[in-house]
């Protein structure tokens, strides 16, 4: 079927060996399609001989493997495939389990076992048995958009995985599966399916997403994706454990859409024509929940994170884990019974009564399925920090910082010696006093200027090491030679929960991207790497602080020249970030803002300004250079940059 000619209606045939997930995937897709889709049903519904076969000696298995002539087996199977194709109807999307190539593979594997044939001989034998139906089968196959699911690229591995799902396996069945996989892989190599998807143990929804991606271009009625990139946080726990508080916090502070499981189930049930979803098997309820999530997120395509509450049913929760895989995080909130009893607005007896209902469904056992156990016996502040770690952990990857020795920074010799001695006294002993040390600011960029720059140092350390770190710093203070040490110390927990200033978030982002190297890092330490969007968004707070500090300096009788210059440069960097320009050096940032203010776009200090009015361009550069040593020029520069910032807050219409 040609992808260049999308079809308004089509037959999608999903094939694959046993236990590859065909039925599950077709069921999910059929439910999602609603009235636009129809199922071809089972093969035994399409030939009148099946009831007698099932009722005969040994049932279907006895007929298939023992007393049914292989010619009859081929006839019944081929007739069933053809009749199913004829009865598919005119729905926009017709879904069938096992396309025409599977008939050939199944029959070849059957005769290989029954007649002791090699793979090649069995393939030839199957073609001869199907010869009377060749024209009809060719026409039916041409009308299919065929997709094949494979357990694995290696048929032997695939066979083992198919058999692992069976409760018991006879030698004959194992031999059949081996032949079936061989035949399926042969036909796949011959190009009998439009697309091949290798399952390889991946989650159900990930396979569904890939299935839709390969089918949608040819059959637009099939949705293009299934929950692409959506992170689902499912909240579980007994009564009054804090699930609602957790869901609301994640909504307000981390942008999660907050959804109720009851609403989703009822919505899916209406779509599927189910009167009471709570009468269904828990596994089916999980499928309905995923279907409702899929449709909701497709209608709100901007969503990439949602919470669902509350998980009360163990079997449904287990199925959600299997279906969503890494897209799902189950958070189980736990609190002692007496704590939860105090929180209940209707009294402790009400809490106990509700707990009995929930535990009867296995709500307490969901703790064993949870990705994160949240202790909610303490303060709200403690709960929120745990939730921060969960939310940010899903968005900020953990990375091992790069390390560069102190002598690569190009610092003055006394400062290089100071840092080396600091590291010797804090990292040699076991356990080390610190977990990480990184020089930041101009000292990290090779731009340190004696008499102007501070020595900015970022340290991660456990609170237990604070006293020893203080003693080391006191002993080494004289070695700084009057240079101001800008030392910032955080714990690993503060980094993971995002409890850092915008400047320190930027440091974490630089460490995570490799743009900044640490001078020492404890083996095994990993730190969150905030994404650029989070880094830029957080920098607004630095801009607010900078604008306040500029005015504080300007209102002094004699502003601190160095402090005014640096805070003006900070505000300039924030302004540039929202123009998509990242600048580290103070002078470059100031020059770029001046250039942008003149309507020429942001240009760094060293960039060509030949297309500008030379007198204006020269004046800009001189202002940036003079502002470092001339207080009046620093004030002019600060007022200009502050004006650019305040222009973004101007009231509409001169109000």
From TrEMBL:
Residues 434-474 form the Polymerase nucleotidyl transferase domain. Signal peptide: none annotated. InterPro entries: NT_sf, P-loop_NTPase, Polymerase_NTP_transf_dom. This is Polymerase nucleotidyl transferase domain-containing protein. The lineage of its organism: Bacteria, Bacillati, Actinomycetota, Actinomycetes, Kitasatosporales. GO terms for molecular function: nucleotidyltransferase activity.
């Amino acid at each position: 079927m040609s992808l260049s000619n999308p079809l308004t209606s089509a037959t999608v045939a999903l094939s694959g060996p046993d236990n590859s997930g065909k039925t599950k995937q077709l069921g999910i897709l059929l439910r999602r399609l609603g009235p636009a889709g129809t199922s071809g049903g089972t093969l035994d519904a399409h030939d009148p001989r099946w009831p007698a076969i099932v009722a005969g000696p040994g049932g279907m298995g006895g007929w298939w493997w023992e007393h049914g002539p292989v010619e009859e087996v081929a006839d019944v199977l081929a007739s069933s495939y053809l009749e199913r194709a004829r009865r598919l109807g005119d729905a926009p999307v017709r879904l069938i389990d096992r396309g025409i190539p599977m008939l050939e593979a199944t029959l070849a594997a059957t005769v290989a076992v029954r007649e002791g044939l090699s793979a090649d001989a069995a393939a030839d034998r199957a073609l001869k048995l199907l010869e009377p139906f060749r024209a009809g089968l060719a026409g039916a196959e041409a009308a299919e958009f065929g997709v094949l699911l494979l357990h694995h690229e290696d048929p032997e591995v695939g066979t083992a995985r198919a058999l692992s799902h069976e409760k018991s396996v006879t030698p004959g069945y194992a031999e059949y599966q081996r032949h079936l996989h061989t035949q399926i892989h042969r036909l796949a190599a011959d190009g009998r399916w439009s697309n091949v998807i290798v399952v390889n143990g991946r989650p159900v929804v990930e396979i569904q997403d890939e299935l839709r991606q390969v089918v949608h271009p040819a059959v637009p009625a099939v949705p293009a994706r299934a929950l692409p990139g959506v992170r689902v946080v499912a909240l579980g726990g007994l009564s009054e454990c804090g699930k609602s508080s957790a869901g609301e916090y994640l909504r307000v502070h981390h942008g999660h859409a907050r959804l109720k499981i009851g609403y989703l189930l009822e919505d899916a049930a209406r779509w599927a024509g189910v009167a009471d979803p709570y009468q269904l098997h828990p596994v089916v309820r999980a499928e309905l929940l995923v279907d409702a999530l899929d449709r909701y997120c497709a209608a709100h395509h901007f969503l990439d994170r949602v919470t669902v509450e509350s998980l009360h049913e163990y079997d449904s929760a287990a199925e959600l884990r299997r279906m969503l895989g890494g897209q799902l995080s189950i958070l189980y909130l736990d609190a002692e019974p007496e704590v939860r009893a105090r929180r209940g607005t209707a009294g402790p007896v009400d809490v106990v009564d509700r707990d009995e209902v929930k535990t009867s469904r296995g709500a307490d056992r969901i703790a064993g399925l949870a990705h994160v156990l949240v202790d909610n016996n303490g303060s709200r502040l403690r709960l929120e920090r745990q939730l921060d770690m969960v939310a940010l952990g899903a968005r900020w990857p953990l990375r091992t910082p790069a390390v560069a020795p102190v002598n690569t920074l190009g610092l003055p010799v006394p400062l290089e010696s100071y840092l080396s001695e600091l590291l010797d006294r804090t990292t040699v002993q076991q356990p080390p006093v610190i977990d990480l040390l990184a020089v930041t600011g101009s000292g990290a960029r090779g731009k340190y200027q004696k008499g102007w720059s501070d020595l900015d140092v970022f340290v991660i350390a456990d609170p237990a090491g604070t006293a020893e770190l203080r003693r080391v710093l006191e002993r080494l203070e004289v070695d700084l030679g009057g240079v101001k040490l800008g030392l910032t110390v955080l714990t690993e927990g503060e980094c993971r929960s995002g409890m850092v200033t915008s400047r320190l978030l930027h440091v974490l982002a630089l460490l995570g991207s490799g743009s900044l190297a640490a001078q020492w890092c404890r083996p095994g330490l990993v730190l969150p790497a905030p994404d650029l969007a989070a880094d830029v968004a957080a920098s607004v707070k630095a801009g607010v602080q900078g604008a306040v500090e500029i005015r504080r300096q300007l209102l002094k009788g004699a502003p601190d020249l160095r402090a005014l210059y640096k805070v003006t440069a900070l505000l300039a960097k924030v302004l540039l970030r929202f123009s998509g320009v990242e600048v580290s050096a103070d002078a470059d940032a100031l020059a770029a803002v001046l250039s942008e203010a003149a309507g020429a776009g942001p240009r760094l200090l060293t960039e060509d300004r030949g297309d500008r009015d030379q007198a204006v361009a020269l004046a800009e550069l001189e202002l940036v250079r003079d502002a470092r040593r001339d207080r009046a020029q620093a004030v002019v520069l600060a007022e200009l940059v502050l004006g650019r910032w305040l222009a973004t807050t101007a009231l509409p219409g001169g109000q």
